Amino acid sequence: MRARIQLPLQTADLIAGFMAWVILSSLLPAIKQDIAIPENQLALLTAVPVVLGSVLRVPFGYLADLLGARVMFTASFVLLLAPVWLISSATTWQELLVGGVFLGLGGAVFSIGVTSLPAYYPQERHGFVNGVYGFGNVGTALTTWLAPVAAAAFGWRAAAQLYLILLAAFAVLNFALGDRSEPRAKTPIMSQLRAIWRDSRLWKFSLFYFVTFGAFVALTVYLPNFLTSHYGLDGVTAGIATSAFIVTAAVVRVLGGWLADRFDCHRLLAGTFAAHIAGAVVLAAAPGLSLYLAGIYLIGAACGIGNGVVFKLVPSAFGKQAGLANGIVSMWGGLGGFFPPLVLSASLAAFGSYVPGFAAFALFAAACLAIAASMGKRLAPQEPPARGRR
């Protein structure tokens, strides 16, 4: 019974973790009315949760193999209580910054499920299973939409404190329903590193995820503030528009995993990177709001399919070291979300335009397209089989 509920339970865990992960960027328009934040620090405040949320994915992936998902999710939700409380009581932007750093725990939980869940299913379903789990990305949409609404109704401090109830509830839920008998891998981390470090596929998959998930995270934290400042939308409307982008990427991620179980993964990836390039061209043109949002949603769909495909490939290629490989690849995806807001801000400061920043993104996507196409042409018969139950 406990084994059967792990996919819905861990998907709900990811939703809750990602809801907490983006609370600072979602409440920033309301927070700015109470706390003086230098304009040159806004991008940093939105980017810092991504850093810890990315770097911690490596140890979280390994520890999920070692300790199991139940322990890791429960501990993560308990630890997240501290930064959420700090943000809700902050009076300076420096306190927001410290709280934002440790919100990264909410993003790091991604590595837990992609390591744990494939053990419950045959390899031919791994793409779909990890795609369903990846639907937990919708948690960012829920916060982006609900947090501004709660802030308008109760104030931003009370809105943040509501998350303390959510996190405590999920800590209890995982302690009670998590799989106590989940098989665990006990291979030392250095042995696993030696086994995968020189495999070029690890770094190619990392580059792919750097673009697909990085673009998803970057636009999630960048859009609310940009839509209010550039297009004059109010915070709630900007939150709804951003939520639509996130839901698009989350729903299509399930489709991406399903497609990856049935079709050539490298051709699918090449197609998604072509769509990233097209979306970047639209955004660089800075058109009217409707066309701008169309470009955003095109990138969202491409992100979703690309994310689903990558996490079909990783457990298939690195069966015995899946936890660590998942952590490394997902770390680079998270870090991919850190740089675009900073690059776009630097582009605006240096050139008075976002066009060079979007051009850099398109070049990254073009490089990934070429690599994915090349891997498809050189693909050996099959990658090593994935692990069964550990």
From TrEMBL:
Residues 5-380 form the Major facilitator superfamily (MFS) profile domain. One of its GO terms (biological process) is nitrate assimilation. It is a multi-pass membrane protein. The chain crosses the membrane at residues 12-31, 43-64, 71-90, 96-120, 132-156, 162-181, 202-223, 235-256, 268-286, 292-311, 323-342, 354-373. InterPro entries: MFS, MFS_dom, MFS_trans_sf, NO3_transporter. PROSITE patterns: MFS. It is found in: Cell membrane. One of its GO terms (molecular function) is nitrate transmembrane transporter activity. The keyword Mitochondrion does not apply. The keyword Membrane applies. Keywords: Membrane, Nitrate assimilation, Transmembrane, Transmembrane helix. One of its GO terms (cellular component) is plasma membrane. Its main location: membrane. Belongs to the major facilitator superfamily. Nitrate/nitrite porter (TC 2.A.1.8) family. PANTHER family: HIGH-AFFINITY NITRATE TRANSPORTER 2.3 (PTHR23515). This is MFS transporter.
